[in-house]
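Researcher: I'm preparing a figure for a lab meeting and need a structural model of a single chain. I don't have an experimental structure, so a prediction will have to do for now. The sequence is pasted below. Please return the structure as tokens so I can convert it later.
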Amino acid sequence: MLRTALATDPVAPDPSPAGRPAPDRRAFEEAAHESARYLQVRSVTEGLAEPLSAEDCQVQSMPDASPVKWHLAHTTWFFETFVLAAFEPGYRPFHPAFRMLFNSYYEAVGAKHPRPRRGLLSRPSLDEVLAYRRHVDDAMGRAIGRHAGRGGFDAIVELGLNHEQQHQELILTDAKHMLSCNPLLPEYFPDAGAAAGPAQAAVAAPLRWLGHAGGIVRIGHAGGGFCFDNETPAHDALLRPFQLASRPVTEGELLAFVEDGGYRRPELWLSAGWDTVRAAGWQAPMYWRQADDGWRVYTLRGERPLAPAATAAHLSYYEADAYARWAGARLPTEAEWEAAALARPPAGDDNLLDALPRDPGPARGAADLQRLYGDVWEWTASPYTAYPGYRPAEGAIGEYNGKFMCDQWVLRGGSCATPRTHVRATYRNFFPAQARWQFSGLRLARDE
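Model: Understood. Here is the structure written out token by token.
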């Protein structure tokens, strides 16, 4: 399924004859670098589909999730629609109907297939979608060879690659939900071995409270490297002194909440959260199941016993807020989270996508803030709104983030399924309050 090179990777030019200008080595190097990065990202996506059958790739387990086959096609659609159609006048689309079938939410592009019905797209087949990827990859190889180094071209390719990496994370979370619906509780990584998960008998590091003086802090992406538009512009925020927990909440701590009747006590819940608990019948975090031998948790490596020291995952905003209230604390604001995280760059040994995802694990100590990055997305108390001075881009690309700034809540930090290059202090993820199929957890905060 994977390829190692584009058919049209740039080839180094021959030395120039005497008296003629030397070839533009910088342009060649830019094209070669961009081609290599393009290939690497695209190969990872297909690699994530490798453990799955064609039948697995077809299933849509709920309206909020998408079939893996659709993710493979939509990420290809992005390059065909926003790069090839714009920069390659002679480009011929692979199939004219794909422009509608694999459009996600870009109203300016045209019609789209309804999201809840993506699982009904039995045609095109998985093989045809993979052929679509090869067709677009070949055309992208030629386009990169011709246009690399041009600011507008490089910027949209970079956005497309980061967009695809976001869908790599969605492939894992959507596939996990799909597999969990099967009574056989299949493993996504059947050969990984049980040792990769958190030890059931491990003891979590003691939770400590680490203070921050507050004051005027600068948050948001200030330049230097890629960011999404919703991370800008950088701006000042005024914070009161606060404290942040040294680590995220663990499964053992969530179990105490469950056993204390946390899912049966309306006084702990926001009104909409309590309505959701009753309507959905929630009695524990997602993927938890009470068996004869105790609680068990479904993971990408199959079901395992609850691990008290493991970071709790798959919590909604409602559950995170209710637990914080039960614990006598609160959720941090996104400005508080970012102010505390800025001095702590992502650690190289966290649980990140290119290191093969596994369950969120226990913290390694309590001397400082632990597991800020690459463990679970951490809910904040901040609604997802625009930063002061934010303006979405013109055209269809402007629909990427700004149109979702309503009824969503911000998460920070990245999860064990997040690509390593996406883990940064300024990254703003966002989901509705009831969403819990992502690797989302919480870190407690309180006023100083």
